[in-house]
From TrEMBL:
It holds the Pfam family MnhB. The keyword Methyltransferase does not apply. Its main location: membrane. Belongs to the CPA3 antiporters (TC 2.A.63) subunit B family. Residues 11-76 form the MrpA C-terminal/MbhD domain. This is DUF4040 domain-containing protein. The chain crosses the membrane at residues 6-22, 29-47, 53-75, 87-105, 152-171, 192-210, 222-239, 251-271, 291-317. It is found in: Cell membrane. Keywords: Cell membrane, Membrane, Transmembrane, Transmembrane helix. Residues 189-310 form the Na+/H+ antiporter MnhB subunit-related protein domain. NCBIfam families: PRK12504.1, PRK12507.1, PRK12508.1. Gene3D superfamilies: NADH-ubiquinone/plastoquinone oxidoreductase chain 6, subunit NuoJ (1.20.120.1200).
Length: 326
């Protein structure tokens, strides 16, 4: 039954991708990209990768769709006819795809218990992580503790991406009386429903943030979900109202604060005679130190991801308002 579900989802992914290739209506393409992300999230759930499914659904189908719609508002809905031949791009895609498929031939069979990862890496985490880290969720143990350096690098990359986008687009804040009509003031039902949904989304984000050591979740997923709640608020009630709740300048302080909070855990570990991000030095009991360290660094990740995602939306939304004024 599981294999049948995977085959159906894979077929739907392929059909969605093929439809995207031939469509000229970019609005429909963006909607199909959102469907593609939802299907990918379902595949991740089928593979028991619920943490990744959270991220794919929130980022791919949620925030990315909003940002692409914002891009369409600046560029246009219809794809322009290309004056160049499509033969060369087709050849490049075919050659690249063939190279990628060729590169997978040496990979071990999927799910084979004799694969190297199941003989060396997985047993090490399965047997030792309950004693060394003490968290029920092994994914959090790997990402936040064993791969703490990688996760810190990913957080810095997210922060750097925000710097690049804001440097290119900027965030122009307009006062409410100067700003053009935004939001859905005439849609009373939509506004009332949003008032009910947004607090629940924020509550769920907090649950994902502080329950990630016991179940699927963590800082990245929680930050994206919380940002999606405020993006919904800005879309329904207007950008000036969203600025009044969380302004761009506050986000510019919040984004590096999360990175610094993450790095401070490593520096504190070094001051106590350990290595960078050695959580064992945070408490007399090494397992308790692991718990403290993971909670703090996950909070740092959540703060940075939330600030970055909302800043990206503000950058695109302010550009749309600027173009409407002009």
């Amino acid at each position: 039954m599981a294999e049948l579900i995977d085959l159906v989802l894979l077929a739907m992914l392929a059909l969605t991708a093929l439809r995207v290739i031939f469509l000229k209506d970019l609005f429909a393409v963006v909607m199909l990209f959102g469907i593609y992300s939802f299907l990918s999230a379902l595949i991740f759930v089928s593979l028991d990768a619920v943490d990744v499914a959270f991220t794919e659904a929130a980022v791919g189908a949620g925030i990315s769709t909003v940002l692409m719609l914002g891009t369409l508002a600046l560029t246009g809905r219809k794809e322009k006819e290309s004056k160049h031949s499509s033969v060369l791009p087709l050849i490049v895609v075919l050659v690249t795809g063939a190279a990628l498929i060729y590169g997978t031939l040496d990979m071990p069979p999927f799910g084979n218990p004799d694969n190297p990862i199941h003989q060396h890496v997985a047993p090490r985490y399965i047997e030792e992580s309950p004693k060394e880290v003490g968290l029920p969720n092994m994914v959090t143990s790997v990402l936040a503790s064993y791969r703490g350096f990688d996760t810190f690098g990913e957080t810095v990359v997210v922060f750097s991406a925000a710097i690049g986008v804001i440097a290119l687009l900027g965030i122009r804040r307009r006062e409410e009386d100067e700003a053009p009509e935004s939001g859905f003031k005439a849609h009373r039902v939509l506004r009332n429903v949003a008032k009910l949904i947004i607090p629940l989304v924020i509550l769920f984000a907090l649950y994902v943030q502080f329950h990630g050591d016991f179940g699927p979740g963590g800082g990245f997923q929680a930050g994206v979900i919380a940002a999606a709640a405020f993006i919904l608020y800005a879309l329904v009630f207007g950008l000036p109202h969203s600025y009044a709740v969380i302004g761009p300048k506050f986000l510019q302080v919040l984004a590096p604060l999360g990175v610094l909070l993450y790095a401070s855990v490593g520096l504190y570990s070094m001051l106590n005679g350990g290595h960078f991000l050695d959580y064992n030095k945070l408490a007399t009991d090494p397992v308790a130190g692991q718990h403290y360290g993971i909670i703090i660094i996950e909070l740092g990740v959540g703060i940075t991801v939330f600030a970055v995602m909302l800043s990206l939306f503000y950058a695109f939304a302010s550009q749309i308002e600027r173009s409407n004024v002009q």
